[in-house]
# Entry
Amino acid sequence: MKLTGRRQSTNYEDRRGNGGKIAIGGGIGAIIIGAIITLLGGGNAGDVAQQVISNMQTTQTESYTPTAQEEEFKTFALQILASTEDVWEKKFREVGRTYEAPKLVLFHGSVQSACGSASSAMGPFYCSADKCVYLDLDFFNEMERSLGAKGDFACAYVIAHEVGHHVQNLLGTLGQAHGQMSRQNEKDKNQTSVRIELQADYYAGIWGHGEQQMFGSLEAGDFEEAINAAQKIGDDYLQKRARGTVSPESFTHGTSAQRMRWLKKGLQTGDIRGGDTWSVSYNSL
# Structure
């Protein structure tokens, strides 16, 4: 991506210097693989935090000083956040609505959100209770090391996906879905979760489409980076990698094929009205 000279959002809070807990024993990469099956933004933070805690053998508190690389990641994240602000303000105006941007909270190790406490091992997430996107910048390294998802546009897709959950929240979709899930059995709840996540992928695609239209920043290979990232975080791919088998009834985010399809659809159309993952049958997603 060509981002030189682009503005950085000021709508963020940096909590990285607060100190946090890190896992020792097993490694954060292995924990991410397990936790990300349950959540890559927009799921139940409490459930994932409990999963992460159960996988930790022990924890210790460490002081934290950002590395030069993490400061570069910070600049990148704030540029992408600014881009989502510009794109979604325009998209909301087109449908007669006003966009309220989410705040980005940077943390290291662990963090307290309005949705509960969370570890960096669960990856980036969105909390609808405080309208914040939470991100440990080291996740960008883990994407490449543990998931094989490389490239700046792949990292941008992760942020855009979380902002996509915020768009769902503003449009009322997320609240309605969570209301349904509170009354559903486990199978139906998981299917509703998949619909939420695929729509957030579609909205991430809309951002990519708008980014290119407004700034022309995408370069050769960027599109493929995002599609590859979507493929690497499919439930089927992660489950097979983590335990060698796949359990479709436990999917909460969608298969690799589904995630790639909805992201690609958003990238190609850029139409906020085209991301209906609710009226189609579950098997047709």
About this structure: The radius of gyration is 18 Å.
